[in-house]
Every structure is written in C-alpha cells, then in structure tokens.
Amino acid sequence: MSPSAVLTSITSESTAIGASFVAKLKERFGGYIRGGYFFVFMVGPIFNLAIAALIYEGGNKSLVPYTVVAMSLNAFVFINIFGSGEILDRERRGGTLVSLFLTPCSRLSWLAGYRFSGLAETVTTALISLIAGSLLFDVRYDVNAPALALTLILFVVALWGIAMIQDAAGLLIKNANQLSNLISPFFILLGGGYFPVDKLPDWLRIPARMLPVGYGMDAATNASLHHASISSLAGSLWPLAGFAICLPLAGAIAFRGIEILVRRRGELDIY
Hints:
Blueprint: H1 3-34, H2 38-57, H3 63-81, H4 84-94, H5 97-101, H6 107-137, H7 145-173, H8 176-190, H9 202-208, H10 212-225, H11 234-265
Helix pairs in contact: 1-6, 2-3, 2-6, 3-6, 3-7, 3-10, 4-7, 7-8, 7-10, 7-11, 10-11
C-alpha cells in the first residue's frame, strides 16, 4: 500500500471516529437535557456515595475512601456493560444499523467513536463522585499520577474488550439490554466496586480474579489514595495488562464472526 493510500485510510478512519463521537455525544447530553435527566445525572453519583457511607457507618469506616474511588470507577464498568450494545439496538430499531455496516470504514472506527462518547460521560460522572467524596466524607487523595494513568488506560481497554464481546452477542440475540441486565449483577458482586476483592471470601474471590475489574479497582484505589507506584502495583497491573491485550482481540474476532453469521442469516436489520 502506498504512503498516500495509508494516509487516506488513516484520515477516513479518524473522520469516522470523530463523526460518531460527536453524534453520540450530542445525543447523550441532548437527551439528558431534553428528557429532564440532567439533575439525576449530576446527583446520582452523590446519592450512591451516601448509600455506601451508610453501609459502612456501622462497620469499617476505613473502607469509605476505597468505596469512593471504586464507585467512581464503576461508572467506567457500567457504561461498557450498558453502552454500545444498546446503541446498536437503538440503531436497529431506528432502521439505521445496516447503513452503519455499509459505511466505507472499519467497524472498529465507529464503535470506537461511540465508546469515546461514553467515556466523556463517564469521566464527568467519576469526577462528581470523587469531588463529592472529598466534600461530604472528607476523603483525602494522595495520587501517583503515572501509576493511575497506566491503570486507567489498561482498565478502559480491558473493559472495551468486554464491551465488544457483548456487542457481538447483542447482534446475535438482537437485544443487548437483556444480556447487560444478566451480567451486571456479577460485576457488582465480583468487581470490587463496593467491597475490595481481596477481602471477599475464597469462594467469591477466586471467580472475581477471573475478571479484569477487580485488578483495576485495586490498582486505581491504591494509586489514588496511597500514592502507590507502578512497581508496587505490579501484582495487579500485570494481570490487567493481560486482559487489556487479550479481551480486545477476542472482542474484535467475536464481533467479526457474529457479523458474518447474522449477514448470512439475513438478520442484521431484523429486531
């Protein structure tokens, strides 16, 4: 492939990512404003933190700082569980799903744009949780920026891999919301968003370690609260890095395979 062809391809993919990102970002925040959900969007994380504080009020208060950080990270988890798969469902219901698959760019480009729009919403929610934790519960952060940045990158990439696998399953069953509702309780129980994975009983901790979420929660909370360095977090970062490599690859393969299957069945636009 000539250099000009490579440049054209990169430009096309970048344009697709940017266009899908802007379109979905406008749709998301426009829906919050027009639908009257903006207030819920702003105060929801604060009420979640209040519930967590009440849970620990009569027990181990030292877990409250962990919970504040972990619940802010939960926003990343749930935007991936309930995010792009449901977007594909809405595109199918609106009759535009086939057009998406006919666009002259890779599937990963517009899927990436959708996920970047969810990431913008998620960062906002996470910041609200962290600020509320500081103001309401006197949580003090001692951040190791390089360690936290590396953790978040690996964490988000691993979650995107899970989301791609869900997207593929959503194409097959034609209702990603049902799948999201099915698996979300397992992420709540085993993900470490409310209670540290290393404090779970053995029969829960073992399956929890088969998910990337607990490793990300552990590394991010320690990097945010205790200034933990990258080297000291190696026990969590290495498994998280493995998930960040394997899950997106598995997701891309699954998405492509399921797309071929539903195309052969003629079911891509059937809801």
